[in-house]
Design goal:
The protein is of the alpha/beta class and 319 residues long. Helices cover 34% and strands 22% of the residues. The C terminus is likely disordered. The protein binds iron/sulfur cluster.
Length: 319
C-alpha cells in the first residue's frame, strides 16, 4: 500500500502556488491529528490487512506541525499495518517514509523526533539559494538556511534528502540558474526535483502578470534551463527517472514512482486523492469542511466519468 497524507497548512501562500492549502497563523494541531486518525480508522474498516510500502506526508507544509504531532501521525499510520517492521530496523527499502519540510522548520530536535518516529526521507523545499528570488516567491527561508537544514537532517541520521528547485523564473529576476544548480549539488542530495514555473489562475503571480508588473514565463528560457539542469545533473551522476526528478543510484522516490507506474494509492487528509486501480476519488479540499464531515461521521461521495487515454471510461468519485 502507498499512503499520501495531506497536511494543508502554510504560513502564507507562495507567489506561484495554487495547491489546496489553508493559510493559518495558528495551526489547529489537535483537531487535525484527530481528524486524520478518524479517517485512518474509517479507511481500515472492512479492509483486509495489507503491507505498507510507502508513506508520504506532503502539503501544504507538514513541517509546520510540531514534531510530536508528526511522530503521532507517522507511528499511528505505521502501526496500522501489521507487517511494518519495528522502528529500529525500518529502512527506506522496506517502508519509505517521507516528510516534506521547509528549511526554516528543520531543527535538530524536530529532525531527531522525526527520525525516531520512523521518518527516513525528507523532501526539502529549497526552490532557490538566491535571497532576492526567495523573497519574490514569498518563501520564508533564506538561501543560507538550506545548507543548515541539510546538515541538521544529516546530524539526526536523515541522509536521504531531496531538494526541490524551481526553474524558468521571469527574466527580470536575473536568477542565476547555474549557480543554484551548483549550490544544490554541493550539498550532495540523494535526489532533486526540478519544477518549471507555470502560471496558475488566482495566484499572486497570475495577478502580477495581468497587471504587467511581472513577465510571463518564457518557453525558450524554460527549455534552456531544463536542458542545462539535465546535462549538469547527469554529469554529476544523477539519473532522471521521471521528467522532473533525478536521483543517485538506488535513491529514487518509491512513493512518486508508484504514482507514475499506475499503482493504487490511498490519500488521507483534506484534498487528498486516492486510486484503487479502477477509480479515483478525492477528499473535500477545504480543511473546515473535511473536519466537519469527519466529525459527523459521514463522507458523502459523488461520481463522474472521464475517458482515459485507453478510450475507456474512468470513474471519478469525489468525497
Ligand atoms: S509552502 Fe508549498 S504548499 Fe505552501 S504555499 Fe508555498 S508552495 Fe504552496
Amino acid at each position: 500500500m502507498h499512503i499520501y497524507l495531506h497536511v494543508p497548512f502554510c504560513v502564507r501562500r507562495c507567489s506561484y502556488c495554487d495547491f489546496s492549502i489553508a493559510v493559518r497563523k495558528r495551526v489547529p494541531v489537535p483537531e487535525y491529528v484527530e481528524c486524520v486518525l478518524r479517517e485512518l480508522q474509517l479507511m481500515r474498516e472492512g479492509r483486509a490487512p495489507q503491507s505498507l510500502e510507502t508513506l508520504y506526508l506532503g502539503g501544504g507544509t507538514p513541517s509546520l506541525l510540531p514534531a510530536d504531532a508528526i511522530a503521532t501521525l507517522v507511528t499511528s499510520l505505521l502501526d496500522a499495518f501489521p507487517s511494518t517492521p519495528s522502528l529500529d530496523v525500518i529502512d527506506v527499502d522496506v517502508v519509505e517514509v517521507t516528510v516534506e519540510a521547509n528549511p526554516e522548520d528543520v531543527t535538530s530536535e524536530s529532525a531527531g523526533v522525526w527520525r525516531r518516529a520512523g521518518v527516513n526521507r525528507v523532501s526539502l523545499g529549497a526552490q532557490s539559494f538566491d535571497d532576492r528570488v526567495l523573497q519574490w516567491m514569498h518563501r520564508s527561508h533564506d538561501g543560507a538556511r538550506i545548507a543548515t537544514a541539510v546538515g541538521t537532517l544529516r546530524g539526526a541520521g536523515l541522509d536521504n534528502v531531496s531538494l526541490d528547485l524551481i526553474f524558468a523564473l521571469p527574466a527580470e529576476l536575473e536568477r542565476d540558474w547555474s549557480r543554484d544548480l551548483e549550490l544544490a549539488l554541493a550539498l550532495e542530495p540523494a535526489h532533486l526535483s526540478l519544477y518549471g514555473l507555470t502560471v496558475e489562475p488566482r495566484t499572486p503571480l497570475a495577478r502580477w502578470i495581468s497587471r504587467g508588473t511581472s513577465a510571463a514565463p518564457d518557453d525558450e528560457r524554460y527549455a534552456a534551463e531544463y536542458l542545462r539542469a539535465h546535462e549538469r545533473l547527469t554529469a554529476a551522476g544523477y539519473h532522471f527517472y521521471e521528467v522532473s526528478n533525478a536521483a543517485r543510484d538506488g535513491l529514487r522516490s518509491r512513493h512518486n514512482s508508484a504514482y507514475w507506474s499506475g499503482h493504487s494509492y490511498t490519500g488521507l487528509g483534506p484534498a487528498a486523492h486516492s486510486y484503487d486501480g479502477r477509480a479515483r476519488r478525492w477528499n473535500t479540499p477545504a480543511w473546515d469542511a473535511y473536519c466537519r464531515a469527519l466529525a459527523a461521521g459521514s463522507l458523502k461521495s459523488t461520481s463522474t466519468s472521464v475517458v482515459t487515454s485507453t478510450g475507456l471510461p474512468l470513474r471519478i468519485v469525489g468525497l
